[in-house]
Specification:
Length: 476
Amino acid sequence: MVVLDATIVNIALPSAQADLGISDGNRQWVVTAYALAFGGLLLFGGRIADLWGRRRAFLIGLLGFGAASALGGVATTGATMFGARALQGLFGAVLAPAALSLLAVMFTDARERARAFGIYGAISGGGGAVGLILGGFLTEYLDWRWTFFVNIPFALVAAAGTWLVIREPEGGRNRSPLDIPGVLLSALGLVSLVYGFTRAESDGWSDAVTIGLFSASAVLLLAFVVTEARVKAPLLPLRVITERNRGGVYLSLGLAIIAMFGMFLFLTYYLQVVKGYTPVRTGFAFLPLIAGMIAGSTQIGARLMPRVAPRLLMGPGFLTAAAGMLLLTQLETGSSYTGLLLPAQLLLGLGIGTAFMPAMSLATYGVQARDAGVASAMVNTSQQVGGAIGTALLNTIAASATTAYVADHIAGATSRSQQQVVRLEGMVHGYADAIWFAVGILVVAAGIALTLVTVGRSATGSPTDEAETHLPVSTH
């Protein structure tokens, strides 16, 4: 629900905007309200899971997310819609870290852990593409409100399963008093950072408000780090992120998400604007990516994780994804779907699925049980910030390249139809230029994984090299 909701609403946004009378200037808040609440409160949500228990936090997150979705589905004004989206973000910030930390504390057998995280990695990686398919189908054949209502049965079935099946291991809660200064500083700092990138995409990097938001974010997050180093019961114990393996995982995941979010954005516009695909056809065009992610996570990553070191899956996985992204740099207005987009998506999916699976497992492996929730929240935080950066940064690069291309070629176009062709060619040229940066980002992610992630076969629970022997493996 959480990953799917990041994209499913985008497809329905034009219809919702028209029905609710939302202005062009305010429509961004349908997406931004969710992103700010989710990104800003993730660390708080992870700490709540450690404090209340992951099963209880998971249930509260599920039911709250379902209720907020129902409110969005029956919204009759823009203000109600913005409020519903903010509530979805709030409960999503509780739900996401609770889900991952439940896996971390419940699956300790090597093979079961590999299988569980393989499935989780496939869902996490493919959820955005599923959102495009489902959003297009519901909007085109039913009504945009069903992009919200669809969450309700998901939430109820998952809550019933949680109540009947899940039994969280006893102990491992962090009952220390809540670090209120840490909550405020982290929430305000992350909100400023995510909103800064959102503003940069719409108003430019030199905009005074954009610069102010980035400056405020730097000050607030620095103050947060200083506070966490001094307080007795920190919201985010620095030991969670300073351990080199987990730090390497958070950094490489964030970079990979930057590249992936840019690719989703460009391919969606390419297929609909340049190729003229309907929303439903666009969604189905992403199926090879989903298939590749599922195969990479469950058939490659899950099978090899008990046998090889995580870096030997993450590094090659990111490089395989970079090869798929490299194919997309050849994008032209007349490019063939089967000749270019299909193999590129398969390589991207296989690479990301293979890399994400051990990364998700290692991000929480070895943490003390009382830190499992907040360690899980760091995974989601790196993904959320990476998504905001990817959307803003790569879109800015593409827009600049498109503007330059059109300026250079528009003079030779004498008719309106020729000018339209030049604009489409400029759009695709901009996408290809930005995708080159995405290739470089994935190569850097591979380098970080191969360099910083030095732990041995992390799923086995037995140290295989010097780096692993220093990990506190109290939960295993």
